[in-house]
């Protein structure tokens, strides 16, 4: 955004940091020569959210926990704010000092010592709970770390609570933020939490919270939300990842077959039920999976089902949210005309070598062993199965990291028995077709 001066607050707005349409603008600014952060609340429920933010910041301060220092708060007319926001109603605002440090979200992605970091987080959560405080909005972006000190950035999610049960659910939610690679065992989590909690009880709560997170995100990315825009028009349902929304992408989705058949696209795989292409959109290489109409009764049934394309679309969001590497979903077009259906899924390209090509000898198998082990560990933590765990469904990137592709048959299991059965099949499928020497290596070295 352009630099904007609000005279009544004596500050400059420098840039938007986060936008929640119809609810909130979070901005970086300058006040009296110091960098500050501002939250503007407007629309339905704005006064309630404003009061919660103020009360939460006060909770942190009163109990001696690190967080943004409140400099100013109050009301302002929306007409005084940048015109492009088009706010005509009353707006509530809070101005806080900038909290120095690195976002926990960024640090988590880059650090090699996730175990130590998670131990510090669990310890902080224990201190919160002992003080009768809960942070209910526990995504990693809500915390900053500076010189090993952890500060909470968001006052809105802070609540007073002395309920042991709610505290354990809150602890489980924090640990679930680590995704399918949580570096601490249940015993290690409880050791850091320093409370007399039975392992079986917390393990059950943790699994329930993890299942809730998965199911919530699966539903979220199939409707309009902060990440996804959904449009329905006549026979078409279009889901677009807002991060990649563009005029060129929308033009492609209007008539995808024309674009694919005009020669711009390269065919990667020609199958009866699914054809895979590579094409450039907005100067970036994309993969298009066209799910072709099936004949007879199967085709008629496809019109009534969610479909493999929707599974692939939504599961990629869940995998990435849980720090499992898979190509990002860009858009999904579902076209139902009468009793026929055709879907087009657009994803980013997974660059690198097929695992089957990369592991040409035992030395290469040794190089990738930790990544293979991590993937199967993640499957167990997340209780998901891939459904077709062959070596050609994994890509080894330039950074020697493993990416999983083709999520059409993946399942997040609600039942331990069904997961164990599917996991056994995935393990067998992974080991099949390797040369004897490589197969023996993975069989002996990977802890399945």
Name of the CATH class of the largest domain: Alpha Beta
| CATH architecture group name of the largest domain | 2-Layer Sandwich
Q: Give the integer mean of the pLDDT values.
A: 92
The total count of strands amounts to 23
Biggest sheet statistics: 7 strands, antiparallel
In the predicted model, the low-confidence regions spanning at least 5 consecutive residues are: none
Please list the strands of the largest sheet in the order they lie side by side: 12-13-17-18-16-15-14
Overall radius of gyration: 25 Å
* CATH fold type of the largest domain: Phosphorylase Kinase, domain 1
Note the quaternary state here. Answer: single chain
Helix content: 25-40%
Provide the CATH superfamily of the largest domain: Phosphorylase Kinase, domain 1
Distance between the termini: 51 Å
Percent of residues in β-strands? 25-35%
Structural class: alpha+beta
Number of domains: 4
Number of helices: 14
Overall shape: globular
